[in-house]
Amino acid sequence: MIENNNQIRDSFGSKFGVIAAAAGSAVGLGNIWRFPLVTTQNGGGAFLLLYIGFVILIGIPVMLSEFSIGRRAQLNAFGSFKKLAPGTPWFLVGSLGIITAFAILAFYSTVAGWTLEYFAQAITGKLSHVNDMQKNFADFSSQTYRPLMWQFIIMLVTSVVVFAGIKKGIEKFTKILMPVLAVLILFVAFRSVTLEGAMEGVKYLFVPNWSAVSFKTVLMALGQAAFSLSIGMGTLITYGSYIQKDNHLLRTSTQVAITDTSIAILASLMVIPAIFAFSPGSDVASLSPGPGLVFEVLPDVFKSMPGGSFFSVLFFFLLSVAALTSTISVLEVVVAYLKEELKLSRGMATLIAAVSISVLGVLATLSFGVMKDFTIFEMTVFDLLNYASANIMLTFGALLIVIFVGWRMGKSDFINEISNQGSLKSNLFKGVYFIIRYIAPVAIGIIAIATFFIQGIV
Ligand code: PHE
Fold it and tell me: What is the per-residue DSSP string for 262-330?
């Protein structure tokens, strides 16, 4: 593929590089910060089961759809739809993806910034001397400059990696950090589940309580699956456009989904049992889980745990790494779009994307301070971006993507793409296409519509 500036289109160099980058995108604050949060708010084990069902039934098919769209078109999320369905309004799905990238990165960079603050507090030893963790979090997050400074640093590091390109930036960064992350999570989760009293937490996670399930729970599980797998907004269309033609896309999608789900489960095993172990008898929901769960309850756990300060440094380090390998994938969606559609250089595209997203990001960060009383639909800017992006925008995006592949791209083009022009044979290909064409759209559609009518949109 020749680009406008006569260079070969950048691509991932190896199969492991593709997995590292895509799993790097998937594994993030969604797994470690958001997952325990929504799980504890929505019935523990029952939520987990629904979640796993959605990963298999909807997650993998949507991921595969995105990879195949991007690799076929060799373009960004917006350009891909324009190229594969010229003269139709399908490009709007790409536009929705770009807008969603703005919404996600804005609030995500707030939380990613908090992880840096906590990493700093952990490494300087300050965190182990805090008496009131709730107050510590509230004092910090309600400030103006300090959270903004960390958010700025996150956006800066993200921009530097994205600016360096696919092979030399994103692939290199994630190939080194993802294995480190996996080892650290295993280590901390092992510590957590071997604490005395941790079994109550493990039970809470794995024993389903169906009475806690409502339509909203189902929507939240679907939204969380979409958010965690990075599907529904074109991240994986963009990454798919950098995947080489001989890659087995179905295998790659399955490996990424398994990695992401295992890490979400390990992360819950890291967070929830530790909380139970240190506040025995308490039910997690009564610990008022909010955005601060990981920043309030967990640091308390670390404080009372043997070797806790060491584990808190590890934990906040791994959280920062997980966040950064995801922020780069969201920024790349917008950068690829600006670069290819507006014919900007990578540097200029990165600068414009990062600065404009940061403007919205500032509003998200200040939602905990000077803008905490500024609400839309009774939610702060942060809460609105968090709720709307995962539960509405990504869900809707995922729905449109499967409809696109199932009904517009069609069976022969899709099978041709995932079988690498017929060179791979598998009985699964037709089955996945069937899910994409019939099952996934119906399932996503029913959940979205039912939730809307039964509970209202928020
Ligand atoms: N999947 C990421 C996480 O779990 C967040 C994300 C969402 C990244 C959408 C890209 C696109 O943290």
Answer: HHHHHHHHHHHHHHHHHSTT--GGGG--STTHHHHHHHHHHHHSTTHHHHHHHHHHHHHHHHHHHHHHH
- Report field, pTM of the whole predicted structure over 0.90: yes
326, 327, 392, 393: which to mutate for ligand 1, most atoms within 8 A of CB? 326
Residue among 102, 158, 265, 330 to mutate when testing ligand 1 (max atoms within 8 A of CB):
330
Q: What is the pLDDT of residues 215-241, one digit of tens each?
A: 878 888 998 999 999 999 999 999 999
What's the pLDDT score for residue 209?
82
The answer to whether the CB of 76 falls within 8 A of the CB of 337 is yes
Q: How far is the CA of 127 from the centre of ligand 1 (A)?
A: 28
Closest atom of ligand 1 to 326 CA is 8
The residues spanned by each domain of the chain are 2-453
Find tokens 């039934």 and name the residue.
57
Task: Quickly count: other Cβ atoms within 10 Å of residue 318's Cβ.
Answer: 24
- Which atom in ligand 1 lies closest to the alpha carbon of residue 28? 12
As a whole number, mean pLDDT of residues 294-308 equals 85
Q: Of ligand 1's atoms, which has the minimum distance to the CA of residue 330?
A: 10
Fill in the amino acid letter for 430. Answer: K
Structural domain 2-453, CATH architecture: Orthogonal Bundle (1.10)
